[in-house]
Amino acid sequence: MFGAKIVLVLVVTMMAVSLDRTWAAAQMHHVVGGDRGWDSSSDVASWSAGRVFRIGDKIWFAYSAAQESIAELKSKEEYESCDVRNPIRMYTDGLDGVPLDGEGIRYFVSSKPDNCKKGLKLHVEVMPKQNPQTPKISTSEDSALALAAGPIPPSGSTQFTASFVLVLVGLGLFCMGM
Question: Which domain of life is it from (predicted)?
């Protein structure tokens, strides 16, 4: 019985360590447009100004799928002219997470040329990855859209990672059996 408890503690500890690596690999989640999301009334250019996008980050597009879709384009020329005839990819779900998995510039525009010409477009320069940090959500305060990317704990609160909770559960199980 005692040997089984040690095995249980070792398994829980190994799970905790592997989960901690997953958390460390996660980077920034950017909700495009902040509170307004991807909408013709949002100022996507101002939202993106000064933001740093890195390999491993994820950008989230939240929009009304009935009224809008997003085209990812190949070139700066297509982006500037709002030419959506030959997109790399179309996003049509209303909530799309786009992993930034390589360095370089990516171009996203409204699939409606009129909205694109009015400024509903985003170019993202993806920079090299930094040292692992704790995962973060980048949105405006009180953003309902932040819920789409995951819960945000109140600032100043103590944050327990999943690995810490697993270690506590494992120790609790070990102690209860003694």
Answer: Eukaryota
